[in-house]
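Lab notebook: predicted structure, single chain.

Context: the supervisor wants predicted structures on file for every construct in the current expression panel, including those that have not yet been purified. This is the next one on the list. No modifications to the sequence; it matches the entry in the shared construct table.
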Amino acid sequence: TSKPETMPFRMHAITDGCQLILGGTKPDDIENFLDTNAEYRELREREDVNIMKTLGTYSPAFGMIGTLIGLIFMLAGMGTGGADKIGSSMAVALITTLYGAFAANFLFLPFSDKLKGKNEAKKVEDALTTAGVLMIAYKKHPLEIRDALNAYLPPALRTKEEE
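Prediction complete. Output recorded below exactly as produced.
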């Protein structure tokens, strides 16, 4: 049998929450602190997603600008009788379209989707962390904490009762 992968956790929220508990901070204040941290982390990371998405949106347009420039050079070469310049200018026109489409569809948009997926996973992690810290603050029984936190995890990662 193979052991399921573990979920990679950022420990700073747990550390901060436990330090607040040890310092005597009220659970409502701890919850507000952790929720605020999670909210602003999500906003910062959503900005990164939006930047990549915007680059993916505009890349084909920049490719088309390159195509227009290549066509202008091609037409200028036709007027001066430089048949050898027509081929290279047409190549520039076509390759810039390819680069724009490639950058959008194989670089920026997939990277944006990956960042978005990571951000969504961190939302679940933040909710799990906040729930766990609050249950510790309310002095819940460890088995109750385990069962409650298992709800946040996919079945393969859930901790089962020891036999």
